[in-house]
Amino acid sequence: MNRKKQFADYVRLTDQEYDSLENRLGRHQTRLRIKRLNELKINGKRPLKFKSDFQALSAMTPRTVEPIRDKTQIEAMKSSLKQRSYRDYFLFVLGLNTGLRVGDLLPLKVGDVRGKKYIVLIEEKTTKAKRFPLNREIRSFLSDYTIGMSDDDYLFASSMTGEPIKRDRAYKILRRAAEEAGVEFVGTHTMRKTFGYHFYKQYKDASMLQKIFNHSSQSITLRYIGISQEEIDDAIDDFSL
Question: What is the pTM of this model?
């Protein structure tokens, strides 16, 4: 019989339930949710006894995915990915340096990028044609990465099918590397938001970034990359009466 075990003072799960959460959310996120539910119960904001703690944990609203602000964490993720798979490493690096959505990265073929200074594609979300420049470092990476590949090969193909890896597979790859690097709340938008955050920090040009992201306003762009909240936090930290 799969009996429930105590994973916190007021949180009980079966091993099967815990494994299901960990497989979907990752170890770090699962532990954070258990801690959060336990604190809510202690503070009287949730009943001490739920019919199902598993359902309560599953239904918790995930926190907003943030950019990776710390460059040492970015390097740690690169290192983790590179040790396992050069394909996964390059997916991360290309996403960080172009700001492309994962849904636009995964279908790319070698012929879309080989020997080119930019990528032209119809964006998955906006259905608009857009040109994305490739910096010198990425062009060098691409030259090495595509040696021996044909123009019809997918850049990020499954070794079993030859087709592009699925989005949920890309998420699991990033999540695992993030856990090893100590990065929280990683999602498929992490690379795009990280690109935007560091681009803005370097150039302070919200207008250009807005155009890159095809956003309708600069305020949306700054909120998307976490700048608005960061500025509020910094202002409050320095404020005193």
Answer: 0.75
Catalytic residue, chosen from 192, 193, 197, 200, is: 192
Please say if 198 is a catalytic residue: no
Q: Domain spans of the chain?
A: 5-59, 71-224
33 is catalytic: no
What fold characterizes domain 71-224? Answer: hpI Integrase; Chain A (1.10.443)
Tens place of pLDDT for every residue, the chain, 241 residues? 578 999 999 999 999 999 998 887 777 778 888 998 999 889 888 888 878 999 988 887 666 788 999 999 999 999 999 999 999 999 999 999 999 999 999 999 999 999 999 999 887 777 778 899 999 999 999 999 999 999 999 999 999 999 999 999 999 999 889 888 888 767 889 999 999 999 999 999 999 999 999 999 999 999 999 887 777 677 667 766 6
Give 40-105 as a 3 state SS string: HHHCCCCCCCCCCHHHHHHHCCCCCCCCCCCHHHHHHHHHHHHHHCHHHHHHHHHHHHHCCCHHHH
